[in-house]
Amino acid sequence: MTLLLMFGTLLILLILRMPVAFAIGVSSIVTLLVTTDITLSLIIPRMLNTLNSFTFLAIPFFMLAGSIMEHGGISTRLVRFANSLLGHIKGGLGHATIFTSTIFAGISGSASADTSAVGSVMIPSMVKRGYPKGYAAALTACAGAIGPIIPPSIIMIIYGSLTGLSISKLFLAGAIPGIVMAIGLIIINYLGAIKYNLPYEKRASFKVVWNSFINAFWALLAPVIIIGGILLGLFTATEASVVAVIYSLVISMFIYKELSFKDLYKVLVQATHTSIMVLFIAATASIFGWILANEKLPLKISVWLNEFTTNPYIIMLLVVIILLIIGCVIETIAASIIFIPVLAVIAEASGFDPFHFATVVAICLIVGGVTPPVGVLLFITNSIAEARFKDTLRYLIPFFTLILVVILLVAYIPTLSTFLPGLLE
Fold first, then answer.
1. How far is CA 15 from CA 316, 323, 373, in A?
2. Taking the domains of the chain in order of start, what are their residue ranges?
3. Averaged pLDDT for residues 280-294
């Protein structure tokens, strides 16, 4: 009764287009009032306790780093370098978009930040060169989904914070799957370029490639410093987020000189708004998750799964299907806070490697960013491209199919996500 009321209320509020954070909060409060004897005075302390985490500090700092890089000339230089390398291949601008998103993913860890930064530069360029608006929007949204898979990853930070797993190992677990997804998207884009006869650029000379590399050098160095510092034990994930902010500020203001103090104020306001939204979602989602734990949902699901089947392959398939459905209706951060504690119990009971399972969970939840009705990444790219949603969905199908294939590969080939973490042992 309690779970039915809570999920039913949440679904109704989401259908009524109430903002995710408020929908989760209201459904939680209604459930507490109607079906439990838990006092409402515990809600605020519980929310504050969730956010009172040193690890969670990484989220606003990584988002700030992404905003600085978007406005400080870093994303533009990465795009120019990628285009000089790949522009001459059929569908070159699309390849450059995927390449740039992958590099940018190694800096911010946020899908929305990556998509906005890269899309604001690449989508107008693709449309100008004759790419269908819907195609440009679909490609960029799926490329942006690489962001939370390649380290550093905000979802992995949340996963580590909630389960106690090593965040460094979680970061490494997503590296190979993220690269596999990027390569797969490039292949799909190449096939799409042939099908739709998309244009390509004149092959850049070695001098042009070299000059674009020099111009992008400091930007390319950012993920090396951030990820390398974490893996070498020089700083934690939270400290790495601060390093990312400082590094991006220095190169944007004093090396590239494209970010003024006046612009910095606007960037800070933008990053603050985004961070508040994300952290508020995390806070309300923690109450939702608290109720699930109080109702012993993890234990109930584990018992049900064991009664239904003990085959780990079938259990993994069920988890993937459920997560894909969850990702379609609940925002990624909220879904992570609510369901990761539940899923961690299932993983342990089923004998899955925790880092392998975490990677599968992360990729499945990220898919929600490119699927209706939530589809945050699609809304970002559609807005930039000024494309019709139905056109974007038509072009999205092959890219989305590729992502599903990657999910199945990661789910059933654990080595893809366990090899690199194993090197740290």
1. 29, 19, 9
2. 55-423
3. 83
Provide the percentage of residues in the chain whose pLDDT is more than 70. 98
Place of tokens 């929908």: 23
- At 247 the pLDDT is 93
Residue bearing tokens 């990312």: 244
pLDDT at 344: 87
Separation CA 170–CA 149 (nearest Å): 10
Q: What is the pTM of this model?
A: 0.87
| CA distances (Å), origin 48, targets 76, 143, 156 | 38, 34, 21
pLDDT value at residue 277: 84
Distance CA 344, CA 355 (A): 10
User: Mean pLDDT over residues 338-354, rounded?
Assistant: 87
- Length of the chain in residues, anyone? 425
Q: What is the mean pLDDT of residues 314-324?
A: 90
pLDDT of residue 1: 67
